Amino acid sequence: MVVMMDLTPEEFDQRIDEIRAKLTEQGHAVVSLVDAAIDAFYARDAAEAAGVAAEDDRIDRVDVEIERESVDLLIRTAVCACNLDAGHLRRLLAIVKVNNELERIADAGADIAELVTQLADPDTRFPETTMVMTNSVLGLLRDSVACLEAFNPETARVVIQSEHVVLSFKMEILQKAERRVADGSMPVDSAFNLHELVSLCMLIADHCTNIAEQVIYEQTGMIVRHMDGTWEEREAEGNG
Length: 240
Description:
5% strand, mainly alpha, single chain, elongated
């Protein structure tokens, strides 16, 4: 039978800091993975794409470690009836949720790298806006990890408000691709590859927004919701 020692709020904070430090490292690793995936896509570099897949496997392992450590801490907190306030529990919940978002971003990055082997026509040039979009998504990802690392809800709000920029790029890119398919200057298969790229970029942007929402929740106790085209922050029920 395993006997658990009492857990003080100070010990909880120390353990949370350790897990969160690992989460931040994971965030930077995910940024590097997505950066490499985008580079591999534009360079049509199969070797670099294979390296992205290997890094995704490592990120998956760290994801499991963070999840396990968080669950173990939650169990210990419950068993020891540790006297924690809402802020303590929000920190733990945010870690679990952000950890999941980072793992999904890494999966999307790996999918971008996998497109390298599927490019129907390596010589096809994509619309110029495509690189602007991928750079914007990479910037959003860096900012979401930065606000996580700095416990900064203001940067998180900037991330949330910037997601619409990525969506506007998506619409412009797909409209240009449709016109080029119609006039015969872009093969249909290449247009499908482009559609997959921008869809994965939108997915990454969405996960970045989710991370930013969790930073705001963790630091302020406010829940962010998208209502009628605007972002609203509402106090969580029972928040204290």
